[in-house]
Amino acid sequence: MAMLEYNEAVERSLIILNGEPYEVITSHVFRKQQRKPVNATKLKNLFTGKVTEYSFHQSEKIEEAEIETRKVKLLYKSKGECWFCEKDDPSKRFSISEELAGPKIQYIKANSILELMTFEERNIGFKYPITVELKVTEAAPAVAGDTVKGGSKAIILETGAEIYGPLFINEGDIIKINTETGEYRERVS
Predict the structure, then answer these.
(1) Burial of 14 (0-12, 13-18, 19+ CB in 10 A)
(2) pTM reported for the whole predicted model
């Protein structure tokens, strides 16, 4: 297991604190007056999702988390569960709660390949693509002069997710969505 210096715990790095894996959300190395430097971080527990603040001091070593990944295929979503199978072996099926999968799962189509992250044989989440292309299944027609809502309208995607996008988007269009923010990026066709 790799050990990190106090200032190497930077954003998006995965560390172990008190025996549990954490993702570093923010980090800021600074020095208070004449004291030694510290790294003030915000950490997200990968098991519970809880965010905590922790300061690493110059003398501390941090254990880097060894996260294993494997490719899985999303089969379907039903009643708060997401069903997956191994990429190369459809007979090995398993389910994960939508809560563990996170809010980004609503932008993923059936039969998509994702990377499942595990820590010590426990599933902790997925690596999602930053953008996905989805077909628009419902989009209200644009009304001329309707800019009261800021020039956007509700759009329903093929996965069932609802986002807000520009007035020129029509039913049947394929658009790019940012899975990090859930925002419209561009129209593909």
Answers:
(1) middle
(2) 0.77
